[in-house]
Amino acid sequence: MTDELTTSVLADLRSVIPSHKVTFTQAKRIAEQQANRLLALSGVTTGPQPSGSLIGRLPRIRIVTDELPASVSGTTHWSGSHWIIVLNQADPVARQRFTLMHEFKHIIDHGRVDQLYTGNNRYTAAEQAERSADYFAACFLMPKRLVKAAWSRGLQTSARLAQEFGVSTLAMEVRLNQTRINAVRDTGLKLPSYAMTNARHAMTIRPLTAEGA
After folding, report:
1. Ranges for the IrrE N-terminal-like domain (predicted)?
2. Does residue 212 lie in a domain region?
3. Residue 91 burial by CB count (10 A; 0-12/13-18/19+): exposed, middle or buried?
């Protein structure tokens, strides 16, 4: 990504969010579209996506690692001048990468959650926001076309694919469920369609005001 593009990334990703309210299905499509736009801007076409170096280059975003409760993977807050994404320093790198992209989606959504997440008979609005952030992270870190290409090259187990894309095996298992790619599952778990962070949750601290953020 060029320096000229970094200043407009958030505006570009937010531009696909309509001004009217959408269904959760539509919100997930928007999340995937945003992930694809970010992938195009990154210019990376193979292997693990550069989550830390990519997001860290954006203006007014700072990424730090710190001691957090074992049940919390990450937090996000507005400092008054920057968005601060805090990752749990005890987490493996693969999990930190996923958490970073999850938290970045919350930043993209800031000021627009009322349009994107209205709740339904299955999930509350807050639950929809978390699941959408998971989906965005999965679409960016494990793009369907790249996972499919890797499978075609012979990486046909979730463990090998997870290593290729720098994610956890569990995250890859869920992504394979989402994309219907015919790789061999290694954990034997019956997984939900989303909820990559179903065991431990990222905790986003939303500021009262973040003008211009």
Report:
1. 64-177
2. no
3. buried
Give the CA distances from residue 27 to residues 16, 51, 110, 119, in Å, rounded to whole numbers and listed in that order.
10, 22, 14, 11
pLDDT tens string 56-103: 889 889 999 999 999 999 999 999 999 999 999 999 999 999 999 999
Tokens of 143: 């793009």
Residue 190 has pLDDT above 60, yes or no: no
203 pLDDT above the threshold of 60: no
Q: Residues near 190 by Cβ (< 8 Å), separated by ≥ 6?
A: none
Domain count, the chain: 1
**Residue 18 belongs to domain with CATH number:** 1.10.10.2910
Examine residue 102 and state whether it is found in any structural domain, yes or no. yes
d(Cα 9, Cα 83) in Å, to the nearest integer? 14
| Domain assignment present for 159 | no
Domain limits at 31? 3-141
Q: What is the pTM of this model?
A: 0.84
d(CA 141, CA 135): 10
pLDDT of 44 higher than 80: no
Of 69, 110, 99, 132, nearest in space to 202 by CA = 99
> Strand 83-88's sheet: what is its strand order?
61-66, 83-88, 74-78
In a domain, 175, yes or no: no
